[in-house]
Amino acid sequence: MKKQIAAISLLALLVFAVAGCVTAKGPSDEELVKAATNTFIQGLVTKNPDAALTVVSPHFYHADAGDKAGMRNFIADAIDSGYLDDAEADVSAAEYTLEEDKAKVYPVVLNTAAGSATLGIELTKKDGTWLITGMDVEGV
Question: Percent of the chain beyond pLDDT 90?
Fold first, then answer.
């Protein structure tokens, strides 16, 4: 009888352990890419460059802005100049293309008092984290 109780207890423990593994699965890569994109965009919309840069890689590069520090200056200058006044972002038409450790998000439309720009955002996954490593901007 004690062996049967021990076997049933062991089986129950195994079932709970497997069920815990199934339910403990985290967000998908697409969900993580969407979250990083939204964090960046919300940083722009709320005029908070530090918030936007939390998802920008130290290896970020853009032909006009340069590196991550240059991107911070670019965003701060845009805020100071009023280019992000009344900013709203539209990601409703955005397509998320993921290939292994690379992702692209396009189009992300940013409408402001100064006009409209369309962003193409490039992300790279490193150590399980998706960060923005590049960007194309149209319409500025």
Answer: 79
Contacts with 104 (C-beta within 8 Å, 6 or more apart), sequence order = 96, 97, 120, 121, 122, 123
Helices (H), 46-132: 49-52, 68-80
Is residue 6 in some structural domain?
no
CATH code (residue 124): 3.10.450.50
Asked if 35 and 105 touch (Cβ cutoff 8 Å), the reply is no
CA angle in degrees (0–180, nearest 5) for 100-57-60: 95
- Per the structure, how many domains does the chain have? 1
Stated pTM of the model: 0.81
